[in-house]
Design a protein that fits this description.
Helices cover 39% and strands 16% of the residues. By secondary structure, the protein is α/β, with parallel strands linked by helices. Bound molecules: nicotinamide-adenine-dinucleotide. One of its GO terms (molecular function) is oxidoreductase activity, acting on the CH-OH group of donors, NAD or NADP as acceptor.
Length: 257
């Protein structure tokens, strides 16, 4: 029998970076980590959002630092790494939650639009891993935010779908290479309300009704409902979990009707 003094499902005392951590799901994860007692840097391109999120992190009684980054710019990621090492003395958890989307069809999508989406969503994940993994402490954990789109096709999202499929394959590839020092997993959220899509998924819209009907749990997710999976994967409770995709979708993907 395992006799825990404390639950291992915690990120208390860990040092985390959340890329894309100043909005939506990433911000919820950054604030959830902080509430659990982790020091957290929440970074994105937006200086004012970085400052706003850092103030909210400090309000939870933990350390943070204000630093911007663009995942298409490796030097900016290096600045985040240096800041984390200088301020926190190391890195235990890295979450890649940056997002980019295009609604162009397979036939119409241009090279520029395809490259824009994949550069942020897929190459961005690769650059985040390449930048932070060498500085991570033994037992470190990388959590990439994928999407249900990686396994379920949706119309007018070819670049996003391909990028997320790539994120999941890259998650498994880097889990293999970075073991045993660093674990690498992904979370695949289903439909999650964030400021950007609040209108599309608003109660009463046709789209919302269709999602609610298809989802066994009967609704879309609040962004806070993705946080628990990130805490688990970042924590020592997941010490034997790597290369895994954790789906958080209210049962959508595995339900026929
Ligand atoms: N909202 C959903 O329903 C949903 C579902 C499945 C997966 N996801 C995924 O979750 C992640 C977060 O999405 P969200 O809905 O919270 O979106 P969001 O737009 O609220 O957050 C995205 C974050 O990424 C940052 N970002 C964008 N481009 C960047 C760049 N070049 N460099 C650094 N940061 C950059 C933004 O500033 C923002 O902080 C994305 O990977 C998205 O694909 C979202």
């Amino acid at each position: 029998m395992v006799d825990y003094e404390h639950s291992p499902v915690t990120v208390d005392g860990k040092r985390a970076i959340v890329v894309g951590g100043t909005s939506g799901i990433g911000q919820a994860i950054a604030l959830g980590f902080a509430a659990e007692g982790a020091d957290v840097i929440a970074t994105s391109r937006d200086e004012s959002k970085v400052a706003e999120t850092a103030a909210a992190i400090e309000g939870r009684g933990v350390e943070t630092a204000r630093v911007t980054c663009d995942v298409t710019d490796p030097e900016s990621l290096e600045r985040v790494r240096e800041t984390a090492v200088d301020e926190f003395g190391g890195i235990d958890i890295v979450v890649a939650s940056q997002g980019a989307i295009s609604r162009a069809t397979v036939q119409d999508i241009s090279d520029e639009e395809w490259d824009f989406v994949t550069d942020v969503a897929l190459d961005g994940v690769r650059r985040v891993t390449q930048t932070f993994a060498p500085a991570m402490a033994e037992g470190g954990s990388i959590v990439n935010i994928s999407s249900l789109s990686a396994r379920l096709s949706m119309a007018n999202l070819p670049a996003y779908t391909a990028a997320k499929g790539g994120v999941e394959a890259f998650t498994r590839a880097s889990a293999k290479e970075l073991a045993p020092d660093v674990r690498v997993n992904a979370i695949a959220p289903g439909f999650v309300i964030t400021p950007q899509n609040a209108e599309t998924y608003a109660d009463g819209t046709e789209k919302r009704a269709r999602i609610d009907e298809r989802t066994p749990l009967g609704r879309v997710a609040e962004r806070d409902e993705i946080v628990g999976a990130a805490i688990y994967l970042g924590s020592d409770a997941a010490s034997f979990v790597t290369g895994e995709i954790v789906t958080v979708d209210g049962g959508f993907a595995d339900s026929a009707f």
